[in-house]
Design goal:
single chain; 221 residues; mainly alpha; 2 domains; two-stranded antiparallel sheet; 70% helix
Amino acid sequence: MSAAPSDAGEGMTRDGPAPARPAEAAAQVPEPTPVPTLNLANLLTLSRLVLVPLFVLALFTGDGADTTWRLIATGLFAIASATDQVDGWVARKYGLITDFGKIADPIADKALIGAALVGLSVLGELPWWVTIVIAVREIGVTLLRFWVIRHGVIPASRGGKAKTMTQILAIVVYLLPLPAGADPVRWALMGLAVVLTVVTGVDYLVRAVRLRAAGRRATGA
């Protein structure tokens, strides 16, 4: 007569432990909690987009010559630029990275800087060629990212981050109602921003070509 099974033998077979049931396996490996699209990081990104038309309105009030409105426009631009740093930090720290944020964040950045450059050019305070050079570079880099998206992602470089910060600083100096004596500072900062814009644009082009070539070799295409 065989012995009655004990608690120690529960879940055992003659060949060893019994395979876990699907329900038990699912309970052991909990599914990751999905990140909601409407989170703090994305709300900060959306706030930057909302601030763009408000900034443009303040910039053109009084034909751009009203000191109070220029200060308001500068403040709005500075606040919107700050959200670009904060939303990225929040997304990384609290795990709030979403596909929506990856798309909306660069769009918000380009909309803000583009609006400022175009606005200053319309007011006759910034040469159009500067705005065109920067716009062509930004659009070109975006197209490059889509060109190589099947083979990988081109991460932001230190030069690219320095370019963005220099652009923001130069635009702030142009927006502020400073005396004519500050013109050399404006030109120097914007000149540096243009140089960094072109140099980093060429760097992104080289990296994109190399990444695409490496991807084609890996796939045998």
